[in-house]
Design goal:
This protein is α+β, with helices and mostly antiparallel strands. The chain contains two helices and five strands. Helix content is about 25%, strand content about 35%. A five-stranded antiparallel beta sheet has the order 1-2-3-4-5, covered by helices on one side.
């Protein structure tokens, strides 16, 4: 098994509000771009700020470059399962 990261599909963008654009990949939340006084602020799927950009296109490109698929560890998989089952 390879540990390299690859894009399994492109991001799908939807405008959620006048100043918010949301991205998904394979049906899962990938992050969003929000317009504020500093420009187009990009946040990843965990809410971490990736930067502020002058244009929406630049902001989208920054998110696309940061959302490469990474294999989930056993611990991440177990935590996700336990949180869904309420254990």
């Amino acid at each position: 098994m390879s540990n390299t990261t690859t894009h399994s599909s492109i991001l799908t963008w939807k405008q959620a509000d006048d100043d918010v654009h949301v991205a998904t990949r394979d049906g899962e939340f990938a992050g969003f771009v929000e317009l504020d006084a500093d420009g187009h602020v990009v946040r990843d799927n965990h809410g971490a700020e990736l930067g502020s950009f002058a244009t929406l296109a630049d902001a989208r490109h920054a998110l696309e470059g940061s959302t490469q698929r990474r294999p989930r560890s056993f611990v991440q998989t177990l935590r996700g399962h336990l949180s869904r089952t309420g254990v």
